Amino acid sequence: MAEVLSTFYLADWYVDSGANRLCRGDTEVRLETKVMAVLIYLARHRGEVVTRETLERAIWPDTVVGYDALTGCIAKLRKVLGDDPRHPRYIETISKKGYRLIGDVTGGVPPSVGVPAARGTGQLRRWVWLGASVMLGLVLAVLYGPFGDEGMPPPTAQVADRPSIVVLPFASIGGEGDRDYFSDGITVDITTALSKLSGLFVISHTSAADWGGSVANARQFAGSLGVRYVLEGSVRRSGDRLRMNIHLVDAASDIYLWSEKYDWELRNVFAVQDEITANIVTALSVKLTEEEQRRTAQRYTRRVDAYDDYLRGYALYSRHNREDNQVAREYYQRAIDRDSGFARAYSSMALTYVAEHRYGWTPNSSGQLERALELANQGVALDEDLPQAHWVLAYVHVFRQAYQQAARAAQRAIELEPNFADSYITLAVCKMHFGEADEALQLVRKAMLLNPKYPAAYASVRGQIHFFLGEFEQAVPVLREAIERNVNLITPHVFLIVALSKLERPDEAAWEAGQLETIAPNFTSDGVAGMLPIQDAGIIEDMQNHLRNVGL
Predict the structure, then answer these.
(1) Buried b (16+ CB within 10 A) or exposed e, 240-278
(2) Residue 401, pLDDT score
(3) Which of 32, 172, 178, 534 has the fewest CB atoms within 10 Å distance of its CB?
């Protein structure tokens, strides 16, 4: 079904996308915009298997979202529809592929107010497909439009004091088997190497990962990120040979500043990365400090097989699901077995244990955090100059609620890698905990400049900071943006409900409370103290009172 639907029936549920509501009989349920967008997309492709990747690109076209974003939307739809994932009547999960809408989709007139909307085989309403061009434009604008601060344009990375650059994902060409993980890994590592240089402004690789177009529209993509220079290329790995074709382009003038072809033995992969970094530094006249000159010559590991295992693990961990997380850990362990001094492998393995704790994949969550801390400390001990190791240590400390230690580690990561966006967010969380909201807000803005296509957590932290500054009007749209990016995040829901209550908008607060109950049916106001980094008992009590006032 290729039509764009504005109103239709899903079995006996009437769907009104313009009003974000579902009706059946005397029951009316409002959905959040992204949840409705998922339903609309599945309805347009009724009976087809739609992959997770396709849905994420369609619903969050300019956003890097976590694994929970889509999962949360599907869970909420099933909750509202009363669907059982084991015996589905509406939405079927296709293992390791995606989702399929199996409920009947028909057009029809809306039910009369207060009149049950029961439908049987003999009561099928006449087909009415509302698709006028004006309505189509409005529906698409509502469902797929950008979200952010009201009246505030998205942050851009235009800087006058130093060159700005984005490394686009290197294309994987031919070779033996699926080598995307290898080309993706090299892309990330070159981005990381450049990010360590204080004389460059480097866009986060997670923002760059959204690019999936041709060389021709790479210039336009660079413009949307607010950067002037683009590094693009391709990687071919075949046997023990590594072939790379790399270009540095001035996006403003469309002039190639530097190009190089490499045809080296695979064991020289680290030397190739060093040479690419050095050529960019030369082409852009970037001045290196003595410490940066020393660090650029360092190696993460000299074992190519360990590096390969590490890249495989990184690719699997990035999928953020229980099964791949476990396999990623096994690859990291293999990398450590090959090179016991491979600091990055220890730090990355620590993240797999944090994920187990964060997503509740194992019952012994405290044990997972202790193991994560042990690995994170080992990574730092093996390489004091590795920014990722310090950031992982900070990340682990945040989940341990050890904010002083987290702040020190995050600050060290920033010193070592001035363009490390996630370190700024982690430090902002600590500053917020310390009551330094103004400084925390500046750190979030810096992170958003470095990672313009930031994930939901960035918006959530920013909304919380506005909240603590007493700027509730500013907090509301930012917290809603976080929820639109990932409906399954509980924290922005909580802050949004309280902010609306403080603004004396009880109907909106009550509706948001209903949304929270849908995704977290066991949530109560008593749980606020354990989930929020707030030491002031008075603030916690005030938030709990507002939550209780709306029925939580």
Answers:
(1) eebbbbbbbbbbeeeeebeeeebeeebeebbebbbebbe
(2) 85
(3) 178
